[in-house]
Amino acid sequence: MKQYETTKRESRKSAMMRRGFNFWPCIWCSGGRVEFIAGDYRELHVSIKLNIRTRNKVGTVYGGSIYSSVDPYFMLMFMQILGKDFVVWDKAASVKFVRPIVNKVKCRFLVTEELVEEVKHKIAVLGEYTFELPLKYEDEAGVVYAVFTKTIYAASKDFYKKKMAAKSTGA
Description:
Elements: H1 12-23, H2 25-30, E1 32-37, E2 43-48, H3 63-68, H4 73-82, E3 86-97, E4 105-110, H5 113-126, E5 128-138, E6 144-156, H6 157-169
Antiparallel strand pairs: 1-2, 2-4, 3-6, 5-6
């Protein structure tokens, strides 16, 4: 179920992926829930709420659940968007917990056409590109509960293979 207004729609493949994510133990155990994946993989909605899997000792959502519920998606989205000729890795992340979560909150992952073109251009010129993407968990009123920065690495598969080969030979 869409958590944000959008004109995008799920495809059969992205809906199956969403269902798979929600049964994948790493995602299910975090307490997060993938609510929507656009058919072009450029938009994804996640939610989390206080429940038995997410509750910490003080009665709010555990910080580890908050972060792990948003962890893999930008990497997985870019893997789908860029395709098999590219390598994509999560490189780093930061999180700032703004206020305790006790009700349902939502997070929107959005990849614009301009960002995709920038990434492809940088990779065409440099062979690889590292970039940062912002995220936030917010409630229906727009009150922010957690702010994240995800650092993503992308490279052409040929460039990456050569880079790894040079590392393994000590060059």
